[in-house]
Design brief:
about 400 residues, mainly alpha, about 65% helix, about 0% strand, elongated, disordered C terminus
């Protein structure tokens, strides 16, 4: 017997609700009474094979749209229990808020770029002075010691200007932290400064009287100056390179990614600037160590600059474009010109002086170019977002980055 009309309507509505909610509920079999022909009984005279079709049509045909209306629920669950196509949430994109920088850019100004140069100049001059001392070239020794004292004094001025108060430098001496480039740099300056100062003061022994207390001081100063000069030369490599480690230890993208090259560039720049002092101050007959320093420094500087402009992928752009790119290109040209003049003009004092000036100017331009390149990379969110996306994709695909693009340890 066919059930009454209201019961059949309620049952159809129940089946339609199940169809609309999706396939994650257990299916309900059609337990309605059957007619003698075996077809499910319906009310209202509907065709036996169109069970629920008329009601579905009158309600907007919910059953055929089951996959579309239930797709949102199924997509959020990832995959339907009964199999089928997996519906995924769209991939997340790394974007910055209204294109604003992701990182807070460095607050350092031009005085820190100048500090990078004067520190390298002091280190290179001390190495030049030690070479002159050990090879018996007094002009090189004198020029290197005096320049080292002047450069480290200028470095102290620039550093205190950035710190704001001289007492802050003193406070940094309370702790020695080997993992902190800033802490190690403070101790390097503390060891280097007095040694460079004593070595420079020892050069005044020749003008002191030979008798009395001043004469005694004049006789004691040369051996003290020799020991202090060698001590300053021993700490000079650390002074020349720690600033590169300091920049790479920050979160600035183009500095942080160039952590292998920055110490190399700064070491080469320090040697080139020290060689420039020797070519300017010493006669050609005594400038042999300065010329050799110029070749070694130029090789390191040009190699490191080429690497940061080609190895870092997208993060090399700040070193090629805009003001940093112009500074670095000009620095390369002056470096090549200075080395060429130093090698070809061995007998000319004028050519040697011009070569030394070119090397000093190249060192200035290189330090400022590296500095402003890092500042530019911190201001553009693209240099922060895109490398992050590349690392995430590499991890997702189960592949390691190439050896020359390996991600350095988090700082």
């Amino acid at each position: 017997m066919t059930p009454p009309g209201p019961v059949g309507d309620r049952f159809r509505r129940f089946r339609e609700r199940l169809a609309a909610e999706g396939g994650d509920r257990p299916r309900v079999s059609d337990d309605r009474p059957r007619t003698a022909s075996g077809a499910a009984a319906t009310s209202g005279g509907d065709h036996p094979d169109d069970t629920g079709t008329a009601a579905s049509s009158s309600r907007g045909d919910l059953t055929p749209r089951r996959s579309t209306e239930a797709g949102g629920r199924q997509g959020r669950r990832g995959r339907r229990r009964g199999g089928g196509e997996e519906l995924r949430v769209p991939e997340a994109e790394f974007t910055s808020y209204y294109g604003r920088p992701v990182l807070k850019g460095p607050v350092w100004k031009w005085d820190i770029a100048a500090y990078l140069f004067t520190g390298g100049l002091a280190a290179g001059s001390s190495l030049l002075a030690a070479g002159g001392q050990l090879t018996g070239r007094p002009a090189l020794r004198r020029a290197g010691r005096v320049t080292a004292l002047a450069a480290v004094s200028a470095s102290a001025v620039f550093l205190v200007k950035d710190l704001g108060r001289p007492a802050r430098f003193h406070h940094m001496l309370r702790v020695a932290k080997p993992t902190s480039p800033m802490s190690m740099g403070t101790w390097i300056l503390t060891a280097y400064g007095p040694a460079a100062g004593l070595a420079a003061i020892a050069e005044a022994a020749g003008v002191l009287p030979r008798h009395g207390l001043l004469g005694l001081a004049g006789r004691a100063l040369p051996p003290i100056g020799h020991a202090a000069g060698l001590l300053a030369a021993g700490t000079a490599p650390a002074l020349a390179t720690y600033t590169g480690v300091l920049l790479a230890d920050t979160a600035v993208p183009s500095w942080h990614e160039a952590y292998p090259e920055l110490p190399v560039i700064f070491a080469g720049s320090a040697l080139a600037s020290g060689a420039g002092v020797g070519l300017l101050a010493a006669p050609p007959a005594q400038a042999g160590p300065a010329r050799r320093m110029a070749v070694a420094g130029a090789a390191l500087e040009l190699y490191g600059a080429h690497r940061v402009e080609t190895r870092l992928g997208l993060l090399s752009e700040p070193y090629r474009l805009g003001r940093p790119g112009r500074l670095l290109r000009a620095g390369r040209l002056l470096t090549v010109g200075g080395v060429t003049g130093a090698l070809l003009g061995r007998r000319s004092r004028v050519v040697g002086a011009l070569s030394g000036t070119a090397l000093l100017a190249a060192s200035v331009l290189t330090r400022f170019g590296i500095f402003y390149g890092g500042v530019a990379s911190a201001r553009d969110p693209r240099y922060t977002v895109v490398p992050q996306r590349e690392r995430v994709e590499a991890r997702r695909n189960g592949m390691d980055l190439p050896a020359d693009r390996a991600v350095p340890p988090a700082v």
